[in-house]
Design a protein that fits this description.
Blueprint: E1 3-8, H1 13-24, E2 31-38, E3 41-48, H2 51-58, E4 72-78, E5 93-95, E6 106-111, H3 117-126, H4 136-147, H5 152-160, E7 167-173, E8 179-185, E9 190-193, E10 198-201, E11 213-216, E12 221-226, E13 229-234, E14 238-239, E15 245-246, H6 262-268, H7 270-278, E16 282-283, E17 288-289, H8 298-303, E18 306-311, H9 313-330, E19 334-338, H10 339-344, E20 353-359, H11 365-376, E21 380-385, H12 391-396, E22 398-401, H13 414-432, H14 438-449, H15 451-459, H16 462-472, E23 477-482, H17 486-501, E24 504-509, E25 527-530, H18 537-548, E26 554-559, E27 571-575, H19 580-601
Parallel strand pairs: 18-19, 18-20, 20-21, 21-22, 23-24, 23-25, 25-26, 26-27
Antiparallel strand pairs: 1-4, 1-10, 2-3, 2-4, 5-6, 6-7, 7-8, 8-12, 9-10, 9-11, 11-15, 12-13, 13-14, 16-17
Bound molecules: fructose -6-phosphate.
Residues 312-315, 359-361, 364, 367, 411-412, 495, 499, 615-616 line the site of fructose -6-phosphate.
Length: 619
């Protein structure tokens, strides 16, 4: 979604802002812009399209007096919500009083949505102000300007008292050069602390090159920044202290490292990412998982009535694996639910329910809202989150960090396999507090610890998977089938294919297809069936036979050396032998590679698919 970068200090702001924007490109956007505080006033440059186009417009800015020597600025990548992705709707948006000329007095960038912008716009236009864009953000800029009397902090505080909705804002005023005003409600803002400088961003990836010492703003925080001085107040209670934390992701981790795409790099990082998730969390001797962040001892677990897993998209699919594993091994009722549905249907949850919220970014609006609903209803709430310091991580108070490293590709890969690994550890911990024996626990630990190697074996078949993918790259539809633990794999495999190749892919429970959807099946629609060794395999193979009888080509995901699958698939993606609950991971990796190569052959924009954003911070 939209990205924010801000800088104030002793260096030239423009290159820092442009580099920051490039680091945020992965989030998905459709226009970009920046504003620099120059001696002649605030200079704003915007463009529809990519950051490269904006850089072109700026030209040789480093050599241009008034541009290269500007030491303070703000920048933005916009993912259109209110109004199309045009230059005029791009941020920053500026405002000046009626009759105040063309040059802006106040300029800001904004993530989030101002819900009452229409009412505010009518009021501001009534005061003689002219708004040029269709955005809620320009309304916000005018609102701040309407209160401006030489003190940006006061103006912003008054303006935000009139606003309903969500925001992460960075603002500058012509008459206060060197000052950035930052505020947050519902949209993340991180402040990077440097020696003689301060950076601001919506995502730490934008500022990692400059500093790892960061402060996360809480909702309703407003910060005034001048050089290295940061003063934070709460809009509700006055001055507050927010302690700095150190980010442990290296700047290199956010680079492509020789791979053609971030997605491919992240697929190949999975053995390490999964190892980082499980490292130090397995007690081989006691056959248990050590998950201190959950803050639940066996007595607490004995009191639990049920586990509810909430998330969206890929995280939701991981949650479904969690539901199966927790019920399967711990005998504890578990349910998975789409986070927005959970939030709006007034769910029955209480003190003996554990709500596990799963989110790579930790910022997904629907998942965050589900967390808040569960907190309000008195449930125990824990987060499985990748981004350290993200809102869900902070608001749940208990949980497990995935430690999968930064996921830059919009399509999630390593976060999913780390989430599943984490959920298997949770199932183990809950099972050991219930009926699972130490011996079975010890075996379970070995099964989890074997996952990175299983993934390596699949990655070694990358070339073979690429060849298979080439044969299906012209398809316009595809069906995915799975049952049991392989049903979430089918959902995730189909999601990957549609996201990055734009092929219409649908996943079905293998048994469900014949209850209606098989009517759609033609020779033109390949079927991807996930049927590794284990319970349910024969039944899925029967469903495969039904598809082949209708002329469909079939790609099977099957266990190496399984001769029973001979004759069922036109092509086979092989995974190593392992129990079904861990086979989820190698099977998904095979389908990630399949989707990647199909999209590559089709020439798609793999890392930044159209219309998609990395973290979905709107409902
Ligand atoms: C798909 C994908 C999305 C996210 C979803 C939730 O590849 O990435 O479906 O999984 O938007 O995002 P998080 O996990 O950040 O809450």
């Amino acid at each position: 979604m939209c990205g924010i970068v801000g800088y104030t200090g002793k260096k030239s702001a423009a290159p820092i802002l442009l580099n920051g924007l490039r680091r945020l490109e992965y989030r998905g956007y459709d226009s970009a812009g920046l504003a620099l505080s120059t001696e002649a006033g605030i200079r704003v440059e915007k463009s529809e399209g990519k950051v490269a186009k904006l850089a072109e417009i700026l030209g040789d800015y480093e050599e241009t007096p008034g541009l290269g020597d500007a030491l303070t600025g703000i920048a933005h990548t916009r993912w259109a919500t209110h109004g199309p992705p045009t230059t005029i709707n791009a941020h920053p948006h500026g405002a000046c009083p009626p009759g105040g000329g063309e040059a802006p007095r106040v300029v800001l960038v904004h993530n989030g949505i101002i819900e009452n912008y229409k009412t505010l716009k009518v009021l501001l236009e009534g005061e003689g102000r002219t708004l040029a864009s269709e955005t809620d953000t320009e309304v916000l800029a005018h609102l701040v300007d309407s209160y401006y009397e030489g003190d940006l902090q006061q103006a912003m505080t008054k303006a935000l008292a009139k606003v309903t909705g969500t925001f992460g804002i960075v603002c500058m005023a012509k008459d206060e050069p060197g000052v950035l005003l930052v505020a947050r409600r519902g949209s993340p803002i991180v402040i990077g602390l440097g020696e003689d400088e301060t950076l601001v961003a919506s995502d730490a990836a934008a500022i990692l090159r400059h500093t790892r010492q960061v402060v996360y703003l809480d909702d309703n925080d407003i910060a005034r920044i001048e050089g290295a001085e940061v003063e934070i107040r709460s809009l509700d209670t006055g001055p507050v202290t927010r302690h700095p934390t150190e980010i442990d992701w290296s700047d290199d981790a956010a680079e492509k490292g020789g791979y053609a795409h971030y997605m491919l790099k992240e697929i190949f990082e999975q053995p390490d990412a999964i190892w980082n998730t499980i490292r130090g969390r397995m007690d081989a001797d006691r056959g248990n998982a050590v998950l201190s962040g959950l803050n639940l001892n066996p007595r607490d677990l004995a009191d639990l009535r049920r586990v509810l897993v909430v998330g969206c998209g890929t995280s939701l699919h991981a949650g479904l694996v969690g539901e199966y594993a927790i019920e399967d091994f711990a005998g504890l009722p578990a349910e998975v639910e789409q986070a927005a549905e959970f939030r709006y249907r007034n769910p029955i949850v209480g003190a003996r329910d554990l709500v596990l919220s799963i989110s790579q970014s930790g910022e997904t609006a629907d998942t965050l809202a589900a967390v808040r609903e569960a907190v309000d209803k008195g449930a125990l709430v824990a987060g499985l989150v990748n981004v350290v310091g993200s809102t869900i991580a902070r608001e749940t108070g208990r949980g497990i960090y995935l430690h999968a490293g930064p996921e830059i590709s919009v399509a999630s890969t390593k976060a999913f396999t780390s989430q599943v690994s984490c959920l298997l550890m949770i199932a183990l911990k809950f099972a050991r507090a219930a009926r699972m024996s130490r011996e079975r626990g010890m075996q379970f630990v070995r099964e989890i610890e074997a996952i990175p190697e299983l993934v390596r074996s699949v990655l070694a078949t990358n070339d073979a998977i690429a060849k298979v993918a080439e044969r299906y790259a012209k398809a316009e539809h595809a069906f995915y089938l799975g049952r049991g633990y392989m049903y979430p794999v089918a959902l995730e495999g189909a999601l990957k294919l549609k996201e990055i190749s734009y092929i219409h892919a649908e996943a079905f429970h293998a048994a469900e297809l014949k209850h209606g959807s098989i009517a759609l099946l033609t020779e033109e629609i390949p079927v991807v069936a996930i049927a590794p060794e284990g319970p349910g395999k024969e039944k899925t193979l029967s469903n495969v036979a039904e598809c082949r009888a209708r002329g469909s080509k079939v790609v099977l995901v099957a266990t190496e050396g399984d001769e029973e699958v001979d004759g069922y698939g036109d092509d086979v993606l092989w995974i190593p032998e392992c129990p079904l609950h861990t086979a989820v991971i190698p099977a998904t990796v095979a389908l990630q590679l399949f989707a990647y190569h199909v999209a590559r052959v089709r020439g798609c924009s793999i890392d930044q698919p159209r219309n998609l954003a990395k973290s979905v911070t709107v409902e």
